[in-house]
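sorry for the late reply, my laptop died twice this morning and i had to redo everyting from scratch. anyway the thing you sent over, i finally got around to it. pasting the sequence first so we're on the same page, its 321 residues, then the predicted structure underneath. double check i copied it right bc i was rushing
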Amino acid sequence: MDNEKMTFDDARALIALLERNVTAVLLGKQAEIELTLASFLAGGHILLDDLPGTGKTTLARAIASAISGTFRRIQFTSDILPQDVTGVHVFDASRHDFTFSPGPLFANIVLADEINRGNPRAQSALLEAMSERQVTIDNRTYPLPDPFLVIATQNPHDQYGTYPLPESQLDRFNMRLRLSYPDRESELRLIRESGLSAVRESGAPVLDPGQLRELRAVTCTITVSEPIVSYVYRVVAATRSHPAIRTGASPRGAIGLKATAQALALLAGRDHVIPGDIRRAAPAVLAHRVLAAGSGEGGSMSADAGEALLREIVDTVPPPQ
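ok and here's the structure:
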């Protein structure tokens, strides 16, 4: 496929390999894996939110290993500095000038582990990178690799040593997903097959960065009819008028909802989006973008409350016939 554009069938075959690899690593999470891959194909950053030890980092590593591009992991701590993330200019005595030493953000896939344990200054270093795919350091702008994807994990806000993510940063994540405890059979299998010193293998890479760009191009060709566009708008608009919500989802959220639905359609083997794709994607794409009514600063809803409210909204907005 070096000199030819990727076909729909080619894209489906690659996606099947990718899904098989990830499913083999994270057991009992088929629905969450499909949503994560949909955001991955749509080009949207992903926030994995739940208790420690439920597989957040495992899922992030499994997706990252599927690409033979560059991968970096950033462990956020309370004393991490912005330059630890973006990089810094270092004086080169031989050249009598400053040279740029890139930080771990310069990779195709960046795993930001326990992002809400980092202080607000370090968190803010990601804003420009996630939105513009570039960083500015000392008035110099450096482009990030293409493709570029941030997969972040965070622990519940009530745990010791965590900082809440600002709304402006939450809005740059296309999707927030919760990974709860596995089902009984999956956890029994994990207990049988795993050990503290053993890490489940993620498998060999199945994509390269060029193929991922082509996959995303195919995703963009999935048909979104005008009634579906109107449906996306009505769902997003409903979040702005709901009495339990102070601030509704942003236009970026509406765009992310459409793009994620296109990817879900491709995962299902369809060349067009149906209302069910919108209904399935809406809680994960929009819940973290709304603020609860009556809340003060930092009034973003919990994952459970936000998803329940979005499902209620989706149920009240009539889909196109």
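Residues 40 and 266 are 12 Å apart (CA to CA).
thats about all i looked at so far, will dig more tmrw
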